[in-house]
Amino acid sequence: MLNYVETKNAPAAIGPYSQGIVVNDIAFFSGQIPLSPETGNVVGTTIQEQTEQVMKNIAALLESQNAEFKDVVKTTCFLADMADFAAFNEIYAKYFVGKPARSCVAVKDLPKGVLCEVETIAYIGK
Ligand SMILES: CC(=[NH2+])C(=O)[O-]
Question: What are the pLDDT digits (tens) for 40-77?
């Protein structure tokens, strides 16, 4: 059984994808970039500001499934510049205290020219 994630508290999709899909007790959330859920505009210009907005968006997705950061089992992180790795990690670590499995790569470009994107998989069974 597949269920789509739909919440106004996280940015709407900007392409042909959903905010996430739940399969049984696992939620697969689409990559979050630092968009405002209200305006759809990019929030912040620094890696710190943009990572904070990404974390807010992930929190909203998790909340839509009655889940929290501690329920995340895997993340994939995309940076526009690996020089931002340390600063990104500093913000990331405040939220993902449970240290889920992770991959982090630098890519040539991200949508809307942002500095970071983070996708998450969470276990939402209780
Ligand atoms: C932002 C995003 N998740 C995408 O696929 O364009």
Answer: 999 999 999 999 999 999 999 999 999 999 999 999 99
Is residue 114 within 8 A of residue 80, CB to CB? The reply is yes
Confidence of residue 39 (pLDDT cuts 50, 70, 90): very high
Cα angle 79, 73, 85; round to 5:
20
H helix or E strand, kind and range, residue 50: helix 47-64
How is the chain split into domains, by residue range? 2-123
What are the φ and ψ backbone dihedral angles of 61, each rounded to 5 degrees? -65, -45
Q: Model's pTM, two decimal places?
A: 0.98
Q: Which atom of ligand 1 is nearest to the CA of 17?
A: 5
Residue 48 CA, ligand 1 centroid: distance in Å: 20
Is domain 2-123 in CATH 3.30.360.10, yes or no?
Answer: no
72 in contact with ligand 1, CB cutoff 6 A: no
